[in-house]
Design brief:
By secondary structure, this protein is α+β, with helices and mostly antiparallel strands. The protein has helices spanning 9-16, 98-104, 129-145, 163-168, 244-256, 309-313, 316-319, 322-335, and strands at residues 24-32, 38-47, 53-57, 64-65, 68-70, 73-76, 85-87, 111-112, 118-121, 150-156, 172-177, 180-186, 200-208, 214-220, 235-237, 260-275, 278-289, 301-308, 343-348, 355-360. It has 8 helices and 20 strands. The strands form 5 sheets. Strands 1, 2, 3, 4, 5, 6 and 7 form a 7-stranded mixed beta sheet that branches. Strands 8-9-10-12-11 form a 5-stranded mixed beta sheet. The longest helix has 17 residues, at 129-145.
């Protein structure tokens, strides 16, 4: 097998000062990268007369052995040293900035996840796409050797120009946030077990009743009930990292100015194909008010008031919808102390020691702490 490596003979002579009387033997080991056009290479040049090392070219561990000859330099054997990605027809050109040459010799650093994968968080520093691909391919070569499974690339919005190269290398979108895009690639030749993006959105509705058996209700300026005249519970979406009980307190305060304390979850509903085809979880929370003067959020709320519970429950829209009737009946049973929902119990998880809430129906005759 004979190999032609353009722009490489001069580099050999400059690096080793090889004369006509001392031709080097270049021992090379070659391994295919993720694409057939790229190889990984290990090489060492030694004197044919004295077996003295003249210089080395360093790349990852390799498995494909090649022997050839060019410009009086014979290629044979193998050596494992450092990593260098190269073309199957040419070494990287000797020209170019030293900084780029050093960067091309890199492997992306990342942290291991709990499932045999690796997570790479890119900085926002600009990067040339061709250099990025060179480093990415060398990194994938190493990750395959290490038996990595899923490779996650967290790409800041400043590096959106690298999306296309990533997709061409086999990555696909997983999820997006305002400041970054997460792409992932499954390396093994097995069934992809990477879980999908978040499947549910979580919402809350607040049942707030004062001592006069009046319920706190609002009319919205936007949404499906805009202009309908329907009075509804204050509702909203749980923020990222926010507990359900805290979200209910926040939403009531934002929409009406009323301060409340979470009592319990009375009911919850799951629906599908809701928000951008995602599923939806909606929790009806009973709240205890500690203030009573209403100050509406004018941007979202058209009106708010304390309404007699019977008047609220008798609205035609509620009477015509089965799910709303179930919610009204649960609230009514709670008022009469005939129904108990799910209380929030602050707990510590066993493995991570994180604090979270467990919602359960508390039997007051049972000691759950034993």
């Amino acid at each position: 097998m004979f190999c032609q490596f353009s722009n490489f003979n001069q580099s050999i002579r400059e690096m080793s000062n090889v004369g006509k009387t001392e031709l080097p033997i270049l021992r090379v080991n070659i391994e295919l990268l993720s694409r057939t056009s790229l190889l990984c290479c290990n090489a060492i040049a030694v004197s044919a007369n004295s077996n003295r090392t003249l210089f080395t070219l360093r790349t990852p561990k390799l498995h494909f052995r090649a022997q050839g000859r060019f410009s009086g330099v014979r290629i044979e054997g193998y050596l494992n040293t450092r990593r260098w990605a190269m073309s199957s027809t040419a070494f990287p050109a000797a020209s170019g900035s030293e900084k780029q040459a050093e960067q091309a010799d890199r492997i992306f650093s990342g942290k291991n996840d709990d499932y045999g994968g690796v997570i790479v968080e890119m900085t926002s520093e600009p990067m040339d796409p061709s250099l990025f691909v060179t480093i990415l391919r060398a990194s994938i070569c190493q990750w395959r050797q290490q038996g990595k499974r899923g490779v996650w690339i967290k790409l800041p919005i400043e590096l959106a120009n690298l999306v296309e190269p990533l997709v061409k290398e086999g990555f696909y979108y997983h999820h997006a946030e305002p400041k970054y895009l997460m792409l992932v690639h499954w390396l093994p030749v097995t069934v992809n077990t990477i879980p999908g993006n978040a499947t549910h959105r979580v919402g809350v509705g607040a049942f707030v009743m004062n001592q006069k058996n009046e319920v706190l209700v609002v009319q919205e300026k936007s949404g499906q009930f805009q202009g309908s005249g329907f009075w509804k519970f204050p509702t909203g979406v749980v923020d990222e990292g926010e507990d359900i009980c805290d979200a209910a307190v926040r939403e009531v305060k934002e929409e009406t100015g009323i301060d409340t304390t979470f009592v319990e979850i009375l009911a919850f509903r799951q629906s599908h194909k809701s928000f951008f085809e995602k599923s939806d979880l909606f929790f009806v929370c009973m709240m205890q008010p500690s203030s009573f003067d209403i100050h509406i959020q004018e941007q979202e709320i058209e009106a708010a008031q304390w309404m007699p519970y019977e008047e609220y429950a008798s609205q035609p829209f509620i009477q015509q919808h089965e799910m709303l009737k179930y919610i009204v009946n649960a609230c009514e049973a709670k008022i009469q102390d005939k129904y108990h929902g799910f209380s929030a119990v602050k707990t510590e998880t066993g493995h991570s020691k994180k604090i979270s809430y467990l919602y359960l129906n508390m039997d007051h005759n049972c000691d759950y702490t034993q």
